[in-house]
Amino acid sequence: MTAAKRRAASGSSSSSSSSNSSSGSNEQQPLQQQQHHQHQQQQQQQLQHQQHHHHHDGSQQAHEYQHLLQHQHHPHSNYHPQQYHQRQQQHTPQQQQQQHHQASSTTTSSTTATLRDCSVKLPLDILWLPKSAMRPVGADASHTDCILVVGVSRPKLAVVFLTVMLISLFLTFHVLYDSAVYNIQAAQAVHERHRLSLAVSASAAAAASSFAANPNPNLNHLPVFVKPVVSSNQLSHPMVFPSSRVHFPKTSRRLPQALIIGVRKCGTRALLEMLYLHPRIQKAGGEVHFFDRDENYLKGLEWYRKKMPHSFRGQITIEKSPSYFVSPEVPERVRAMNASIKLLLIVREPVTRAISDYTQLRSHAATAILPLAEQSASAGAGSGYGARMSSTPSTLYAKLQAAHSYDNALGSGAGAKETAMAGMGARRAAATTTTTPTPSAAQLAAKSFEELAIFPNGTVNEAYRPLSISMYHVHLHRWLEVFPREQLLVVNGDRLIEDPVSQLKRIEAFLGIEHRVRSEHFYFNETKGFYCLRYDNGDRCLRETKGRKHPHVDPVVVSRLRKFFAEYNQRFYELVGEDLGWPEE
Ligand SMILES: Nc1ncnc2c1ncn2[C@@H]1O[C@H](COP(=O)(O)OS(=O)(=O)O)[C@@H](OP(=O)(O)O)[C@H]1O
């Protein structure tokens, strides 16, 4: 017989003798307990049989564990290994004497000793048991080689112990996560820097040397992607990064510090993309329409902030939504967010802009024609040039509001993102607008620019949206009631098409960033007829929706409209303090 077998046999005989020792008092015990002892004996025999077959070295511990399990199955017992030891010690002196005699040669005491020996002196008692200690529970039980049994003897201490372990684990993962995020940011920054290599031709070495030349640098004047660490309290960095390494400052989403507020079809997209060539500029991907759409504005600034791109400290985030310019509630809302925000307004010769607008609207098969304007037309020359000349910006704006609200009801055809007069004011006006039958999109699309812009009696349809948006002074007036003139830069969109660098230089100065976007960032694309952007990893033109071919417009109508706008343009020049030299016929 092997030692294991002997141990298994002695363990079972110990148990049976232990149960026999108490059999003398069976008659006094309740029937339930007697049954329980019988059940114990049966199980022990089964276990012995099982151990015999398994021939496992750890069978003695298995028996011990089985014994504990049996007690746990007792309806009145809640056994624990330590309780087991105590129970062993709580037998009557007679029983103890009997047991003592037997235990000297049997495994009851050795089992107890084994249990004591195997118990780690921790709040957690850990037993490593062979699989034979477990009664098979399912098919998988046979695959289990060993069982780890953890018993908690001091629950409070164990909870503290586990809590400390969990916190340590959390902190470890936090540091690892932080480090991983920084590595990703660093990789992105390197990629970005690579993309902008022309703009950032002053390399990291130059940055380091300029830093060395100026020991108290304004970080805003260093390239943002690679900055030597100044000091640990100036720039936060992950714990795992040695401070001597090149440091990638943390990015976060920031509310815009500058806005391109319009004007629609004047080159707002081109302007944003060109500015984005500058390493200090980050741009919001699409038009967010936060300030002009109530459904967005009511979501709050945090919603808006989350729409912004990640940016490094020192970078300027810019968003563009051209409809901000013509939406009445926007200036006040923008000021509520940031009273010192920088505003970029790009304008273009008003008639060309109107034709561009018409081209886009037509391409969406829905141009706007306004009931107010139709009524004006049928009323004759009442809304003609003479009447317009006496209009103040605010009264003219009220008329345009009513017109725009109807324009909205039509869906304007410019796509939701370009709805110029979304918002409460427009809806209020819509409720009071007369319900003239709405022309179908097909009917609208079939109309020429001339038909839409000039009434049959020869007067200008000044409420026609492409024209009303070109009345820049009307809209700008509201902005300048809220913001000082110095906070707004007027960009000449016609010049941006012809000579982007000169306009960008002005904008860089206005934004307080170094002159970085240069002629090498552009090339003229003959096919497109516009400047396209040049990166070191490829060239990119704006989409085909930018730079559409305009339809031919009767020169007489163009001349008529230019005369019409001459007065408005003068007012605009006065407001901005600059003559943009737009033709007057
Ligand atoms: N480099 C370059 N490439 C292409 N297009 C250029 C460029 N610079 C300015 N533009 C002019 O941008 C006009 C479109 O203006 P927007 O981007 O403001 O349009 S929109 O309001 O966002 O729909 C667009 O108007 P259209 O020519 O009428 O299509 C262009 O004239």
UniProtKB/TrEMBL annotation:
3'-phosphoadenylyl sulfate binds at K265, C266, G267, T268, R269, R348, S356, Y531, K546, G547, R548, K549, H550. Disulfide bonds join C532-C541. The active site is at K265. This is Sulfotransferase domain-containing protein. Residues 1-112 are annotated as: Disordered. Residues 10-49, 60-69, 79-112 have a biased composition (Low complexity). Residues 256-567 form the Sulfotransferase domain. The chain crosses the membrane at residues 157-177. One of its GO terms (molecular function) is [heparan sulfate]-glucosamine 3-sulfotransferase activity. Keywords: Disulfide bond, Glycoprotein, Membrane, Transferase, Transmembrane, Transmembrane helix. InterPro entries: NST/OST, P-loop_NTPase, Sulfotransferase_dom.
